[in-house]
């Protein structure tokens, strides 16, 4: 069986790229297709595969400013020749699912999220965009939304990474989706022996929708030490908000992240994520999570058992959650947190995906 994996772009490693790595381990013979490739930022496991790009990769400045070419990406996807493949798995968060496949081939879309900037998060992206970007996106938005909906109808089977995303798939694409949670490498993290730590931690891409500003403001006001790991377009604004108790370390090696995580009092997770691999990694290390109580966090964080959820996306609500956490910090058992994280292991992801692929082929064979 010839397999193609279609991923939106391969510029930096994040949660979506970790899912792609797991799919590569399931299908070591697979070819990878993507809009933009920066091989220097990829691990050897991905570089071992044949990686082909769309014409977007050859456009000026695409290595860093690929999202500005979003209006051309539907055309780029539909020009790919995938007729040689029996199984196509698209990894959808940016445009990836719009490829054309053979009638007898299975196209399974693993959906991290319907494109946020086309649907429910569109107003947030507009507020943070430049003047020309706002103008052009308003003009192009209706056409891109129509293409996003219509291309979802060509997919044979949709698998969402959470129940939260499955609801959004039903809302915007009018399709039902099975749920297979993303893989978390729980074997990498050993639970610490006892609760407690030296600092709070935020980790991930520094983009506006992740709302790291709430953690920065809350810890600045409370004068609690906060370490922020990661980089992105929102870093300069966040540094301007930060007081002396907040440190920005930029991107770090995995070993450094694990070491800083193990010494954390708790992970602060103030954004609304579709799933969120980082909180599960924290729990696997025995570290509680203080998370905004919407989106994927409601499926991974057990309030009062593996962390705390706060109800309003404001600095004040996060401050109150931190105080509440500190009053019961000693009750969070690292071994129990690690055991809970095992529900999201890579082994479970592999079993779930293989089962969904088999169901997809069974549906194709039905008269």
From TrEMBL:
A single GO molecular function term of this UniProt record: glycosyltransferase activity
Record carries keyword Glycosyltransferase: yes
Claim: Endoplasmic reticulum is one of the keywords in the record: no
Ranges where the Glycosyl transferase family domain occurs: 197-329
Keyword annotations from UniProtKB, A to Z: Glycosyltransferase, Transferase
Domain Glycosyltransferase subfamily 4-like N-terminal: 13-186
InterPro entries: Glyco_trans_1, Glyco_trans_4-like_N, Glycosyltransferase_grp1
Enzyme Commission number(s) from the entry: 2.4.-.-
Pfam family, one: Glyco_transf_4
Domain of life the protein comes from: Bacteria
Protein name: Glycosyltransferase
Organism: Candidatus Desulfovibrio intestinavium
Taxonomy of the source species: Bacteria, Pseudomonadati, Thermodesulfobacteriota, Desulfovibrionia, Desulfovibrionales
């Amino acid at each position: 069986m010839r397999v193609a994996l279609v991923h939106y772009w391969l510029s930096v490693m994040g949660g979506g790229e970790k899912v792609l790595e797991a799919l590569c381990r399931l299908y070591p013979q697979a070819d990878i297709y993507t809009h933009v490739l920066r091989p220097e930022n990829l691990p050897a496991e991905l570089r071992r595969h044949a990686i082909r790009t769309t014409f977007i990769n050859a456009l000026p400045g695409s290595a860093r400013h690929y999202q500005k070419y979003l209006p051309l990406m539907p055309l780029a996807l539909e020009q790919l020749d995938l007729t040689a493949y029996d199984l196509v798995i698209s990894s959808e968060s940016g445009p990836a699912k719009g490829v054309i496949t053979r009638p007898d081939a299975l196209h399974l879309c693993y959906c991290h999220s319907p494109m946020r900037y086309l649907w429910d998060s569109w107003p947030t992206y507009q507020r943070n965009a430049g003047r020309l970007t706002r103008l052009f996106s308003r003009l192009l938005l209706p056409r891109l939304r129509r293409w996003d909906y219509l291309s979802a109808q060509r997919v044979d089977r949709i698998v969402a990474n959470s129940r939260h995303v499955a609801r959004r798939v039903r809302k915007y694409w009018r399709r039902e989706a099975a749920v297979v949670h993303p893989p978390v490498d729980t074997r990498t993290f050993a639970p610490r022996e006892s609760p407690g730590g030296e600092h709070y931690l935020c980790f991930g891409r520094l983009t506006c929708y992740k709302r790291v500003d709430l953690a920065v403001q809350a810890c600045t006001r409370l004068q609690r030490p906060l370490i922020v790991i990661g980089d992105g377009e929102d870093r300069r604004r966040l540094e301007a908000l930060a007081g002396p108790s907040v440190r920005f370390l930029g991107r770090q090696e995995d070993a450094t992240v694990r070491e800083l995580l193990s010494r954390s009092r708790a992970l602060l997770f103030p954004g609304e994520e579709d799933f969120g691999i980082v909180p599960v990694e924290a729990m696997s290390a025995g570290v509680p999570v203080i998370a905004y109580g919407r989106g994927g966090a409601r499926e991974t964080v057990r309030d009062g058992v593996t962390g705390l959820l706060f109800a309003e996306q404001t600095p004040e609500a996060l401050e109150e959650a931190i105080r509440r956490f500190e009053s019961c910090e000693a009750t969070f058992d690292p071994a129990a947190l690690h055991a809970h994280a095992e529900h999201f292991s890579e082994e479970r992801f592999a079993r779930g995906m293989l089962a969904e692929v088999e169901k997809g082929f069974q549906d194709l064979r039905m008269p």
